[in-house]
Specification:
Blueprint: H1 3-34, H2 40-61, H3 70-96, H4 101-108, H5 111-121, H6 128-150, H7 156-175, H8 185-206, H9 218-245, H10 248-251, H11 254-270, H12 276-296
Length: 310
């Protein structure tokens, strides 16, 4: 046995996990910074369009064909609607309405809970502990939103939008294995990001958003660039690599590590308060997600949860 090669592989897995943990956890903070000046849909939409173009150019340089069939493009566009637009877009709008970045991350952590709920509605029978985890998680969601509202730190409208984003992202995750999609996950990401980004920009313009790039400060542009390069390209690549090189149970831990990172960074950098509702509701949600992921980790590879809407 080549212990040197084994050690290097373990090191790569740890490095990729750290990237997914920290970068995806920090994207909620970056979104919060961006939407202080940029309109949410056109800001996030332009981010996804550019990320898709850059990733596509990188794949072309490496000799990967981006050609897809009409059915595959339609499948990717549907995911672009459900994940970048209705998922990430609603998170951005929710944060623009005052939802703290850490709270948004905790609400988005409920994606695996919604996935189990969709399985139940479709006639599937999840394991009993999965159902327990979902019920506990939704109690945590209710406590976080309603309790946080009473403490004045979680605007109800913004929180409802982020919960809706979780539901849409979960539906996209659930329906993804049933769609006709490109086999290469990076090619899928390219078409999903540019189609979703174009739809986001279009909807933003329709709802009256009027971008004014010349008026945005350096902090906004740095946060936007961070989302394009690290949030959409680097972390995504690390995640895809992990899916093929690490146990799915280990990879799935990002779902309950990301919100912890987001809450900490929101408190440290933006001085977002960690109230009793955030602490109790957040802990209940994270525990519930941990239960569901632990129980469901033996599921087939084509039932893996999709990426978070960040």
């Amino acid at each position: 046995m080549d212990t040197g090669r084994s050690g290097a592989r373990v090191g790569l897995v740890v490095a990729a996990l750290v990237i997914v943990y920290v970068v995806w956890g920090s994207t909620y903070l970056a979104i919060r910074v961006v939407v202080e000046e940029m309109p949410p849909l056109t800001g996030m939409g332009s981010r996804f369009v550019l990320a898709g173009l850059l990733l596509g150019a990188l794949l072309k340089v490496r000799g990967t064909s981006l050609r897809v069939t009409r059915a595959q493009l339609l499948g990717a566009a549907l995911l672009g609607l459900l994940l970048p637009l209705l998922g990430n877009g609603f998170v951005a709008i929710g944060e623009s309405k005052g939802t703290p970045s850490g709270v948004a991350a905790l609400l988005v952590a409920a994606v695996p809970l919604f996935v189990v709920a969709y399985r139940v509605l479709s006639g599937d029978r999840p394991r009993p502990w999965s159902v327990v985890g979902v019920l506990v998680g939704f109690v945590g969601l209710a406590w976080l939103v309603l309790g946080g509202r009473e403490q004045g730190d979680v605007p109800l409208g913004g929180a409802v939008l982020v919960v809706a984003a979780s539901a849409f992202w979960a539906f996209g995750s659930w329906v993804q294995p049933r769609l006709t999609l490109p086999e290469n996950p990076f090619v899928l990401a390219v078409h999903e990001m540019w189609t979703g980004g174009v739809m986001m920009v279009g909807l933003g313009l329709v709802r009256g958003e009027r971008p004014d790039p010349a008026s945005y400060g350096a902090e906004t542009w740095w946060a936007w660039a961070y989302l394009v390069v690290l949030g959409s390209m680097v972390a995504f690549s690390a995640y895809v690599w992990l899916l093929g090189n690490a146990p799915i149970g280990l990879v799935a831990t990002y779902a309950y590590v990301n919100p912890v990172v987001a809450v900490f960074l929101g408190w440290l950098i933006l001085a977002e308060p960690i109230t009793g509702a955030v602490l109790v509701g957040g802990l209940v949600i994270v525990a519930a997600v941990a239960i569901v992921i632990s129980v469901e980790r033996v599921q087939p590879r084509d039932e893996e949860p999709a990426l978070e809407p960040v």
